[in-house]
Write a structure and sequence with these properties.
Elements (H helix, E strand, L loop, with lengths): L4 E5 L4 H13 L4 E4 L7 H6 L8 E4 L2 E4 L1 H11 L11 H15 L11 H19 L12 H6 L6 H8 L3 H4 L1 H11 L2 H4 L5 H9 L13
Parallel strand pairs: 1-2
Antiparallel strand pairs: 1-3, 3-4
Length: 217
Amino acid sequence: MADEVVLLGFLPSPFAARLKIALAEKGVEYEYKEEDLRSKSPLLVQMNPVHKKVPVLIHNGKPVCESLIALQYIDEVWNDKAPLLPSDPGLRAQARFWADFIDKKEMIWAAKEEEHEAAKEFFDCIGVLEGQLGDKAFFGGETLGFVDVAVIPFYSWLSVFEKYGNCSVEAKHPKFTAWTKRCMEKESVSKSLPDQQRVYDFKVGGILTKLPIDQDL
């Protein structure tokens, strides 16, 4: 019997994009259902009754909530292709730490009066991550891994933060920019991420204000 996989998401959500990338890397076929978070579907409420947030991965009728938990679930269930987490326990722990590091920031929730501070925090985060990346092709080495999949969806938000901070990511963080370009060369990434302009339009239009997108809260 074939697996039945459904993903509940919202186009601007970097957290839903993580799961799209992971499923594409694994070659898993799934049904994607776009949510209107101003009018939550009965399925979303049923599958995530505690938080009622996206993304929700539904595998054979059973929900997996919180994006990093679902990301690890995907890696463990479909473990015959494109491993995201390293086999070494120490390296696995480090990967989880850096993925959690980005999730502890609440940059995309910034109110209008907080926009400049949110941009500063974003660029500070990039600086820290750039130091961790070093001269490696990807955070885990030579192949796309757990941290890459956790971080690259924020690529779609670069235009937003560049506007907030009146700053160019490419000029300020060239290594990070080179890493984003390597990631975007992968079809699993480029086809899973929303266009920067669409995310920018969502944000400046106020649609994203206080919507229940999972930031692993």
